[in-house]
Amino acid sequence: MNGTGERAYFLGHSDAEVERLALQNTFYRDATEATLRRAGLVSGMRVLDVGCGGRDVSLIAAELVGPSGFVLGIDRSAEAVMAARRRVEAEKVPQVQFAASEFDEFSADIPFDALIGRFVLMYLSDPAATLRVLARHLKSDGIVAFQEMEMRTARGYPDAPLFQRCIDLYATAIERAGFESGMGGKLFGTFKSAGLPLPQMAAASRIEGGPDSTGYELMASNIRTMLPMLLRLNVVTAADVDLNTLADRLRREAVVGGQCLMFPLLVSAWSRGRP
Description:
Layout: H1 15-39, E1 46-50, H2 56-65, E2 70-75, H3 78-91, E3 96-100, E4 112-118, H4 127-134, E5 138-150, E6 155-157, H5 161-176, H6 187-193, E7 200-204, E8 207-208, H7 215-232, H8 238-241, H9 243-257, E9 260-262, E10 265-272
Helix pairs in contact: 1-2, 1-7, 4-6, 5-7, 7-9
């Protein structure tokens, strides 16, 4: 742990995890893009994407700032940064670069117009301190925009027991690892504690149903990633989860029961100005 209380991203950066993050990005992309637009990202801006992981949010920002802008994604994991560079090189997006850095050790010669991140503050023991440090790299009227989950808000209508069990397992793994499953609700206080202007906020959720939703595969992928932690905690057995059939069983539950599934709320917060 370092000066801002950062903790390791416990899910790792394997190819399978990068694929899960890409699926997650496809699922939540529209909500993230909408937040960045509302926060004020426009053509020509310089953007710092914190906890960039596999590069997905960096690419959304790159589309908004265009060829005249610039996006730098930083991550504590050199492995994640290497994977992000490979993917961006293949997609030929020259205005995006990546760097491995501890968040409280990051330095830049030129200030940024915006500081952004998605699903990153939940993994920090003192997210306000991290924002305070990173906001020093902003222009005086710079944008700070983050999006986080409220995991336990998810549910089915009517009740969908298997879906609800998966949400509980997902949140339990995050919580038992020492991270924050309800970071979305803490964004307002985090901005305030960081000395930032009080943020504007919004919440959105994906509501899914029917046979063609990609939400079943995403939920099964989430549980696959969390399973080693859940097994170590003796929360489940591999047989209980039965990963090979989980997505199909989630789909069947929703389709046969006529349920719509409300996935976790995504809470967004954004403001302008440094501490």
